[in-house]
């Protein structure tokens, strides 16, 4: 039996590096609370998005790595900041006028515009849980509203009140002059309107557990800071949550580096120990600009899953989390094939290499052993040259190339064929631009057609690839990349393409000979 703990001591994969840093924090003794706590945060004013997926998926990778090197029980809290006051009405919801009447109230105090739950917050929390459940994530949902109103945060809230000046002195230097004059870590919930108020706090009494604030109408109101009567401004709130729940690990984006530092200082003031953190880079759009939810210049989880399996999205999240990466449609094929390549190589690897393999982290243990049979890019190019949106047409070629595969015996391949057709229909087909070969290329393609005609129809991909190479050399393409680019642009209508030997073996030698003939004859290959 493989001793993963011994192997993990030397593992270099980033989840293991994080797990080792966490083990240094918690040690070998089980914490007083009985477990090591991982946390991810969620702002439920909007629906779960691809960043939500990434943060939970990556956190679970670290949690799984930690469980290989420690016997201490672990838990993951998916924490919803659902007591925040709603600042603006989202553009993508019904009943916007109704919701606008409740601006400023906690999300859990606003009626559900969808009419399915007791509040807007409950609706979006349910969407979060359904989203996480869809991917089989192991987590426990925790609501800020429940924590505040049940008293779970009371002791730590009193700690914030007791260190009121120390806390605000951490925050004030980061604020403008005008904001400094009115800042308080406490946001009282108005007993008359139910709104979360950003108003000046004029008195605070740690012994009584109260603050006095100046209401919007100028009157002074005294309220408890406990029992859900107040919530905290978010940086203080983050620190209070770390201290109250004794969070051991939480990752966050690069844009929150300063906030992490501030919250860490406040957490220490509250006699807490800030969690081990991991800063991941932000995603960029197709132009290399930061993705913004409000602008909508990114890629949604639903869009990704139209073109590729969820494991490929996890593959994207696993690779270089500290490097800024473009998150757009054109990255999908590469991520699918990277995942498939790692998956196919897993079984033949030594155990020490297996736990470095991304698929081991994606599946949180040994991955499924199913053979994908073909790459995603090959399927894309098959759909492209066949001009088909019918999976049955692809299977006609696939079955001839891989007689052992069928939709029933190769379900992964069948799903990939469907994904490839969706991607071809939406992105490849509209962008195709065929061109005619120049004289040098025409001579080479005539030679290639003759060479392929001389091969046995059952020749394998390597034999075919060698023949394609030799033709390129004979016609003195100084850089063989130019030769392959010619084939892609003339035959497929695109500047990049598959390994030609594999593609011809799949599509068929006779069919490829016919395709070259049509191109040389000037026929329209786009139809």
Q: Write down the CATH class of the largest domain.
A: Alpha Beta
CATH superfamily grouping of the largest domain: HUPs
The CATH topology label of the largest domain is Rossmann fold
What is the makeup of the main sheet? 3 strands, parallel
Q: How much strand content do the residues show?
A: 5-15%
| Rg for CA atoms | 29 Å
Counting copies of identical and different chains, the oligomeric state is single chain
Cα(first) to Cα(last) distance is 57 Å
Mean pLDDT, all residues: 93
Number of helices: 24
Structural class determined from secondary elements: mainly alpha
Overall geometric form: elongated
Low-pLDDT regions: none
Characterization of the model:
39% of the residues are buried. The protein starts with a helix and ends in a 7-residue tail after the last helix. The protein has 4 domains: 4-166 and 233-280, HUPs (Rossmann fold), CATH 3.40.50.620; 283-362, no CATH class; 376-431; 439-520, Orthogonal Bundle (Arc Repressor Mutant, subunit A), CATH 1.10.10.350. The protein has 24 helices and 12 strands. 49% of the residues lie in helices and 10% in strands. Strand 5 and strand 6 (210-214) form a beta hairpin. Strands 1-2-3 form a 3-stranded parallel β-sheet.
Quick structural summary:
This protein is mostly helical. It has helices at residues 4-8, 14-26, 50-69, 96-100, 120-134, 144-150, 154-162, 164-171, 177-182, 234-245, 257-269, 301-307, 310-318, 332-346, 351-354, 358-362, 376-386, 391-401, 411-431, 439-453, 461-474, 480-492, 500-507, 509-520, and strands at 36-42, 74-80, 140-143, 186-188, 201-205, 210-214, 220-224, 230-232, 249-253, 276-280, 283-284, 325-326. 49% of the residues lie in helices and 10% in strands.
């Amino acid at each position: 039996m493989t001793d993963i703990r011994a192997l993990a001591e030397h593992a270099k994969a980033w989840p293991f590096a994080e797990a080792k840093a966490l083990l240094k924090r918690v040690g070998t003794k089980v914490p007083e609370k009985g477990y090591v706590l991982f946390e991810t945060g969620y702002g439920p004013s909007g629906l779960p998005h691809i960043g939500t997926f990434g943060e939970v998926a990556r956190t679970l990778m670290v949690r799984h790595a930690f469980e290989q090197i420690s016997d201490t029980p672990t838990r993951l809290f998916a924490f919803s900041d659902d007591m925040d006051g709603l600042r603006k009405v989202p553009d993508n919801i019904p009943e916007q006028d109704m919701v606008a009447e409740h601006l400023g109230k906690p999300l859990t105090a606003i009626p559900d515009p969808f009419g399915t739950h007791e509040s807007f917050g409950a609706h979006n929390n349910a969407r979060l849980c359904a989203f996480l459940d869809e991917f089989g994530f192991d987590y426990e949902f925790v609501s800020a509203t429940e924590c505040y109103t049940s008293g779970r945060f009371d002791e730590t809230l009193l700690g914030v009140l007791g260190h009121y000046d120390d806390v605000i002195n951490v925050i004030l230097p980061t604020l403008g002059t005008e904001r400094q004059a009115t800042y308080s870590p406490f946001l009282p919930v108005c007993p008359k309107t139910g709104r979360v108020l950003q108003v000046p706090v004029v008195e605070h009494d740690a012994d009584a557990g109260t603050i006095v604030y100046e209401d919007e109408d100028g009157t002074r109101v005294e309220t408890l800071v406990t029992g859900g009567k107040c919530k905290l401004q978010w940086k203080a709130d983050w620190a209070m949550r770390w201290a109250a729940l004794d969070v051991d690990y939480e990752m966050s984006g690069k844009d929150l580096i300063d906030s992490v530092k501030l919250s860490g200082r406040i957490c220490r003031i509250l006699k807490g120990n800030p969690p081990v953190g991991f800063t991941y880079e932000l995603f960029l759009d197709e132009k290399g600009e930061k993705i913004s939810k409000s602008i909508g210049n990114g890629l949604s989880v639903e869009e990704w899953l139209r073109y590729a399996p969820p494991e490929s999205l996890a593959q994207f999240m696993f690779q270089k989390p500290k490097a800024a990466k473009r998150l757009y449609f054109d990255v999908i094929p590469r991520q699918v094939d990277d995942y498939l390549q790692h998956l196919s190589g897993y079984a033949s690897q030594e155990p020490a290499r297996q736990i470095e393999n991304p698929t081991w982290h994606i599946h949180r243990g040994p991955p499924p052993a199913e053979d994908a049979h073909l790459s995603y890019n090959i399927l894309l190019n098959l759909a492209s040259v066949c001009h088909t949106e019918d999976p049955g047409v692809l299977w006609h070629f696939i079955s001839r190339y891989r007689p052992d595969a069928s939709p029933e015996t190769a379900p992964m391949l069948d799903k990939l064929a469907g994904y490839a057709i969706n991607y071809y229909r939406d992105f490849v087909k509209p962008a195709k631009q065929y061109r005619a070969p120049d004289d040098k290329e025409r001579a080479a393609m005539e030679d290639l057609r003759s060479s392929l005609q001389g091969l046995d129809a059952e020749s394998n991909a390597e034999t075919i690839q060698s023949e394609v190479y030799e033709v390129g050399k004979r016609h003195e393409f100084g850089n063989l990349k130019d030769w392959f680019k010619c084939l892609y642009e003339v035959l497929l209508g695109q500047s990049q393409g598959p390994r030609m030997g594999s593609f011809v073996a799949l599509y068929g030698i006779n069919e490829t000979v016919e395709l070259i003939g049509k191109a040389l004859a000037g026929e329209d290959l786009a139809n």
